[in-house]
Amino acid sequence: MRGEGVIIENRHSKAISMDTWAQLLEFFRTVDLELSNYGAEGAWPYLIDEFVEYLYDKSIVEK
């Protein structure tokens, strides 16, 4: 996927907690590249939800 760093640079200007980094790793381990098994109602941190919306908005991933 492209754009992984862009979301952090453009939309998130605060430090990212270690917990969020750990959950990001879990996200990449459990959610497939097409995001077909991603659930917005899941317990993902807000930053990950924003990242997924970015991927949809930029048509990097189809809804």
TrEMBL record:
Function text: Neddylation of cullins play an essential role in the regulation of SCF-type complexes activity.
Occurrences of domain DCUN1 (ranges): 1-56
Pfam families: Cullin_binding
Gene from which this protein is expressed: A10p012780.1_BraROA
InterPro entries reported for this sequence: DCN-prot, DCN1-like_PONY, PONY_dom
Originating organism: Brassica rapa subsp. trilocularis
Superkingdom of the source species: Eukaryota
Protein name: Defective in cullin neddylation protein
Membrane-crossing segments per the record: none
Signal peptide: none
